[in-house]
Amino acid sequence: MLPKGQSTVGVVSPDISLWNHCQGAADGYSRDNDGYVSATWDRNLALRWTTGFPDRTGYIYRIHSGPNMIDCQATLGDYNPHPDEKEYAAIGGIKTNQIIGWTLVKNGVQGKEQLNPFYQGSVYSNMGIGGAQPQLAAFPAGHVAWSEAPWSQYSTCAPKRSARDFFKQKRACSPAKSNQAFATDYLEYVNAICPECE
């Protein structure tokens, strides 16, 4: 499953800001350049979303946890605009071999789960989620969160370490690196701990 803004799994998209992802587009859907795929850890919530559209067909995917799954609430804290969605955002997409199975929901009725023949449980058996990744929040420059823990350690508002730092001209807090640079670093980490993840 690819993010809306990508054509290849596991690459950094133009907008890899978790904050922008959770904000969504003005129409309530994903942004065109989004770098994440939305998932929820609450199956009942997924079922309510899917059955909330009578006359439509949808799927509920059962996905194995992996380090590409970022906990939106743990990462954004009080700045998460939709904590009720209980979202894990898959950076770079969800790998085919990470999908355990899927259930068709048609006209509000659940079918039987179909197991994915490409699922590789042995690859993901010891994998947990990526958890909180404050460096991926990517709030806009000047956002108040950059001056607060845990995000301040990834910003230009990091604590002063020397007299020279103390006398530098104070400026608005912003990320210390681009959101693409933080995301590239994180995806390199994911690939290092899970080289068999497609």
Question: Can you count the beta strands?
Answer: 7
CATH class descriptor name:
Alpha Beta
Output the radius of gyration.
19 Å
Distance between the termini: 12 Å
Order of helices and strands: HEHEEHEEEEHHH
Annotated CATH architecture: Alpha-Beta Complex
Please describe what this structure looks like.
- Pfam families: Enterotoxin_a.
- Keywords: Disulfide bond, Signal, Toxin, Virulence.
- InterPro entries: Enterotoxin_A (IPR001144).
- GO terms for molecular function: toxin activity.
- The protein has one domain (18-138, 175-193): Heat-Labile Enterotoxin, Chain A, CATH 3.90.210.10.
- 22% of the residues lie in helices and 16% in strands.
- The protein is built from six helices and seven strands, in the order αβαββαββββααα.
- The protein has helices at 18-23, 43-51, 72-76, 121-124, 163-167, 179-193; strands at 36-40, 57-63, 69-71, 87-91, 99-106, 109-110, 114-115.
- Strands 2, 5, 6 and 7 form a four-stranded antiparallel beta sheet that branches.
- β5 and β6 (109-110) form a beta hairpin.
- The longest helix is centred in the last third of the chain and has 15 residues, at 179-193.
